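2024-03-11 09:14:02 INFO queue: dequeued item Permease, len=445
2024-03-11 09:14:02 INFO validating residues
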Amino acid sequence: MSDGASPTIEDLTARIGTLEAENEVLRGATPAPAPMTRGRWRAWASAVCIIVAAILVPLSIVSAWARVQLVDEDSFVATLAPLASDPAVQSMVVDETMDAIRAQTDFGQITSDAIDGVASLGLPPAAVSALTLLKQPAADGLESLVDRAVTRVVASDAFAGVWSTATRAGHRALTTAATSDGGGLVVRTGDGVGIQLGAIVERVRQNLTDQGVGVAGLIPRIDRVVILGSGENLVLVRTGYAVAAAVGYWLPLVSLALFAAGVLVARRRATALVGTGVGLLVGGGSLAIGIAVGASVTAVFAAQSGLEPVAIGVIYAQLSDGMAHTATIVAVIGVVLAALAWSRGRSRSATALRDGVDAVNSGARSWLAARGVDTGGFGRALFERRVAVRAVIVVLALIWLVALRPLTVGEIVLVTGTALIAWWVAELSQSRPAEGPAAAERVPR
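2024-03-11 09:14:37 INFO prediction written
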């Protein structure tokens, strides 16, 4: 084809053939898009691990608590021992003890027999009439005397020791297949778990005898248990003990391992960390809410059983506060982790936040450099090893949290705030090449 001449059909056909040949070469050199099967598998595996771990969070907290309380005798005693000095629990024990004594001791009959015996000695009719009028006041006085003795025994420092010792014996009975022999204050019977009042009545009888009150010998032996749980709970206690002893230690570790696996397998680890934080929040929060609802259910059960709701509430709180505290801490950690992970994500808002923080830090470093504040080689080393420095700050914060156990929400806020301040100081102390003297000269003094 000559210059300036229109291309012939043969020329166009030749060009098309050449282009097609080049396209075939390019198709052979360019690999086909990789299938998304592997990426989808990783995303699904990560999601499954995190979801299962989130479900295990409340179970892990409960099983760990049960293992400590049911398996560790000292922890069980330490949890229940303070109840002996709680006014509401003391009031319930006094009321239940007096009910048990009244059920087997007729104070009116005792005083009536005593006065009738005196009247039969040949006293004048006027004296007999006077003594008859004293029957009810004498019965009330005797009952009041016993009531004061019961109250004195339950409120004494010695009772706290009796409660602690008997609770230890009750724990040993609770962790065996056989029921308690009645020698403990906290016992397990065929009807459930309860408080044995016999030991208290024996102490009252001894207290009255020491005061020289002769009628103390008329108080019979009491074999009554204030049931704190229904008979069905007996099977649950046995099952719970076996489960707690077996998985109470391992289940929290399994939950943490699943969270870690979900993050490591994920295609986008920042997103997986957000999911982990949400899982901790949902798991811990649901347990905390469940415990709060359980307090209302316990109050209803106490009212139906004729027990003092306030005292039963105190006992429930004493037993469940440890779980509720742990659940709350786990939920707060979940919120902090989710927020930090989100800030490192790829979303437009997270990117804008990081760009804004970087701009503020860059401006602050330039402002400091313009005023002669230069970290020199140390700042350059911080910049070159900034990832390692951030990792060290995170590790130190985690070690601090572990050292503070048991944690409070305030301590978590303190550690998180301190770690963020340390990170910010490390960022400001960096010496970056793009923010050298030239950049500093552009900052107005």
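2024-03-11 09:14:37 INFO annotate: Residues 7 and 293 are 88 Å apart (CA to CA).
2024-03-11 09:14:38 INFO item closed
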